[in-house]
Amino acid sequence: MACSPLEQFAIIPLIPIHIGNLYLSFTNSSLFMLLTISLVLLLVYFVTLNGGHPVPNAWQSFVEIIYDFVLNLVNEQISGASSMKQRFFPLIFVTFTFLLFCNLIGMIPYSFTVTSHFIITLGLSLSLFIGITIVGFQTHGLHFFSLLLPQGVPLPLAPFLVLLELISYRFRALSLGIRLFANMMAGHSLVKILSGFAWTMLSMGGIMYLAHLAPFLIVFALTGLELGVAILQAYVFTILICIYLNDAINLH
């Protein structure tokens, strides 16, 4: 019996925990999030141990590339004083690194892609969005509401534009979560479907044994594409967080 391509996204409870009506089990999703965080912390710890190496090795160079990339991203997307950028740099760095490693670990066969579940991506985007909104109110007070009304708008159109801007602002968190979840789930499903098709043709033998090379080549190409998507989606999520944070700080 052929396995469904959606089976790879199944949540499996590893340590069942029930407290009344609450279901707090430790699942495979929890395990891979814990592994991702542990891997990132261990990598950064060993790279920065004793101040690092004067001549960077491969792992130190990898961490430095990520650090410089996120630092340039923050400097380009968030305008204002350097102290303000440094204040939010750790948040942006941790967000990008966590998503990047979650996506890359999900590319390993028989692993689990944490970001392929909407509840995970929505929880992350919603928590960041709430934090950005709090930063906006802390910085500007009630003047933060001026973000919903562009300058020079005729007074009769103001109520309609405020309503549209409010709806658009509230959908930012939703769109962030949907974009990441949909891209990761769709890409992994497609690779799984084509891999199963190629394996079926291989098991038939005869002339179909030679014909299986085409779908296998497509699978390899899609795997490379999915690797690029995994990196790109972490970048897109992070740069949009920077843009939204810049809007909250500078009311652009």
Automatic annotation (TrEMBL):
Mitochondrial membrane ATP synthase (F(1)F(0) ATP synthase or Complex V) produces ATP from ADP in the presence of a proton gradient across the membrane which is generated by electron transport complexes of the respiratory chain. F-type ATPases consist of two structural domains, F(1) - containing the extramembraneous catalytic core and F(0) - containing the membrane proton channel, linked together by a central stalk and a peripheral stalk. During catalysis, ATP synthesis in the catalytic domain of F(1) is coupled via a rotary mechanism of the central stalk subunits to proton translocation. The keyword Mitochondrion applies. This is ATP synthase subunit a. PROSITE patterns: ATPASE_A. F-type ATPases have 2 components, CF(1) - the catalytic core - and CF(0) - the membrane proton channel. CF(1) has five subunits: alpha(3), beta(3), gamma(1), delta(1), epsilon(1). CF(0) has three main subunits: a, b and c. One of its GO terms (cellular component) is mitochondrial inner membrane. HAMAP family: ATP_synth_a_bact. The gene is atp6. Keywords: ATP synthesis, CF(0), Hydrogen ion transport, Ion transport, Membrane, Mitochondrion, Transmembrane, Transmembrane helix, Transport. Belongs to the ATPase A chain family. It comes from the Eukaryota. It is found in: Mitochondrion inner membrane. It comes from Sphagnum palustre (Blunt-leaved bog-moss). GO terms for molecular function: proton-transporting ATP synthase activity, rotational mechanism.
